[in-house]
Amino acid sequence: MSLRPTLETRKATPTLEGAGVKLHRAFGFQDPSELDPFLLFDDFRNERPEDFEKGFPWHPHRGIETITYVLNGTVDHGDSLGNTGTLGAGDVQWMTAGSGILHQEMPHGNDRGQMHGFQLWGNLPASQKMTAPRYQDVTAADIPVVTDDDGTQVKVIVGDFWGKTGPVDGIAADPQYLDVFVPAGVKKTFKIDTYRRAFAYVFDGEGLFSDASAPQGVLLEKEVMGQEVNIRDMSGDRTLVRFGTGDEVTVQAGERGIRFLLISGAPIEEPVAWHGPIVMNTQEELMQAFKDLRNGTFIKPAH
Prior knowledge:
single chain, mainly beta, Jelly Rolls, nine-stranded antiparallel β-sheet, seven-stranded antiparallel β-sheet, 1 helix, globular
């Protein structure tokens, strides 16, 4: 067994998206090989309707998958193929854009005006860039939850974990998407297949992610009460933790416990040509996509 090193921790940065939605971006529009097969991760938790109610009006996607996970509030969605629906608290939508789709996502707050959720973009390999679009809408009730004896709780959205299998299937990146809560003071180790790229996104509480370059939780950075502690990896709200190669991740929960998404997937390792919501393999394919948008051939007819 080998502990994955912590390559980096960084705070998500405030940004505007859609028609003026305030959100925090953990990564995106940077080096696409960094977290391959994942391209972008947005945290759109807001407490005021004026920060999100303008939503994400009609926009295109091609060559990727978008994964939306709602914690509070609802998201109404519709697309150019005639699909419509609403995601509620705890629900997940995994949309494979494939050859192309136009869609919109309009968030609404709960009875306290809160809209909390996340969106992750996953890349598609060249062989699946132009597949037919597909939705997998999953309700909270269909997501298995596993609780360990120490109170650790894991929602298995995608992949296999602790004997449970998430309800989303057939995804190109062979991902694992977990919503993890570790209670205060508990130290917990999670296994991740070595071939996967992995990251954690902390969105509540705090904790210490152990580093492989020293005994668990120990680095020569600061001495506190005679013990060396890795202050670099003390992760609080809206913190991305990017891991290196190994098959285990260990976290020590702080005084309030820690809740985070633990996400991993098989790297695609192909060239990326990316502009906005369209991700292809070559500049020629990217130019063709925008040409298709201009001439009305972006949406492929259903067979």
